[in-house]
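OP here, attaching both records as promised.
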Amino acid sequence: MQHAGNNKTPFGALRIGVAALAVFCLMTAQAKAQQAASAPATVAQGRVAMPPAPPLPHGASAPHAASAPARALPAMPVPIPPQAAPAAPAASAASAASVSEAASAASAAEAASAASAASEAAASEAAAPEVPLPPEAPEPNAAQRSGLAPKGAYAMRQTFAQEVDRRLTVPAADQQAYGRALQHALDENGHGDLANEFVALVDRAENVQALFVYFRAKPGDAWSMIGASPVSTGRPGSYDHFLTPLGVFQHVPANMDFRAEGTLNEFKIRGYGARDMRIYDFGWAEGERGWGKGGVSPMRFQMHATDPEKLEPVLGMRHSKGCVRIPSTLNAFFDHHGILDAQYEARAAEGQSMWVLKPNRQTTSWAGHYLIVIDTARKTRPAWSPGPGKAARQQVPAAANNVD
């Protein structure tokens, strides 16, 4: 019986309480470790884990009020960030070390092993690259909605000749041959009935390196060429250089375009061209690696201008890291007339903010949706598509091989 005013606990009772608490902590730690070891690693279902995209490349910009998404560098494999391992649930076991050091160490080891296995499974799942966006249902352009006569579309030939300074004079026989190749590519990709809109066709063949703008009024008609210009596509042989991917690529706002700042990069080159040039973004594509043992990797596929003084003079030969480089005046022609902007204009008409579209643009009623890349593998250089001269090639800076 305790005396009044004496509320101290006897020493023996205190020792018993401490021992009981230690045993309880040890049992709790072991139960948690066993539960972690038996639980399967959690894997997100239904969607490949997406790594965060790096910021806009150096030399590119978007207005501060725009909602342009951050994007990875063009022609670069998708970055896979390392996954941090979750902490091992061994803290409770440490609290029981004074009672049973050996048992506590064993329980901590079990918990750490379970955490390691879980982290490896999570890292394996995250290693899958970003997948391309699914195709969108193409929105009809103004001519397709109204049945407008195609006279204005064919008149774009004169506009092309007036506004684009780097042009190729393609013989009629080759115009027809490329029209048939265009139709074949569309047939293979389920767009064989495409008509009443402009399309852009690129031949990535080393001996051609050209872009063509085509149009036809109705399915079944032959494709008619509007104009052609020299380009540069992917040059294999160096690290991070891809062959430009083949296929039919839809131009959609989900892969939002952006504009060049026109600043010099670390190699003193304007990789995206002069200020305000538009970068046409076609999203992720499977690109054939031009280095090492080959194979394919995801790359960001774009079409854009290039340095007007240092690199535009060598258009007509393979020189990019996988993108399609085009003349600055062709870039302005595509941009001002909305040659591939059917989907952008449809979203703007719905009230969405298409910040990349200029307010003074004059979008054609026959705006298109697609860029098509083929490879004719021509063995000899046609006279109508000459490569850059020796003087132009000698002016290319050595570091230009590191530019997109």
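Record two, same layout:
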Amino acid sequence: MTSDVDRALDELYGVPPKEFSAARNVKAAALKAAGHVKEAQAVRQLGKPSPFLWATNQLARQGPERVAHFVDVVHRVRQSQLRDPRTAAEGMKTIRAELHALTNRAVEALTKAGYRVSPSASLRISNTVLAASVDEGLVNALRQGRLATELPAPGFEVLAGAEPERRLHLVPGGRSAAPQRALTDTRSDRTAKRDPAEAKRDQAETNREHAEARRAQAEVQRAQEQTERERLALELEALRREAEQRRAAAKRAAQEVRGLERQLAEARRALRVAEREATGAADRARRRTHS
């Protein structure tokens, strides 16, 4: 990608949605005139971003270090959970805190740009940020503020460190189902051949692994429930903001109505005065005529 194309894309993704189509066509024409025919065609085919996607892309422009920090946090948490599933709850708590801060900054950008923030705005922004942060093919676009489409929230298995196409299944001992069955079968054979003390130790070890798996699953469940509570909290916060905006708009409208009512009352008073003066002037004119 040439510096001209790179600069054009960077500028284009910073343009507010209302101005995007016109700016895109100008950039495409300039690239074509500079000899970048294929790039110009690709730019012309770019779709107009939604206000939520535009606000998400502004995060990288307003605070690139914060976006980079969030990506790093997500990566570290995923790696940590692969090593020890018990860290799931604490890791998700860290991600939620960082994601909440980024989402609020994007919502502020929306508000400052004059867009009305709907109850779903925060959720759509946070879903896109989180999904891009765990996608190797999109994380650089998130860092650069060049995401081309909104994204759905990633599944919990992705946050737990599994690849999107390989679902993570928690089973006793943290192993896949087949190895676990093999392990159980092997231990059963050993138990039949060994003395009762060894069999008892094997059983105790199996019980400990099962208990550890149950604790890990409980941690994951708590993390999922907390994530859902956070999602609801974001929606409630968006609703609260919208209600405040409506109250403020209603207050302004009421003030305008009172101002108009005062102006109307003053106009009526002026009209009555003018009518009295006109009547007096007419009376005086008639008297002069008769005299």
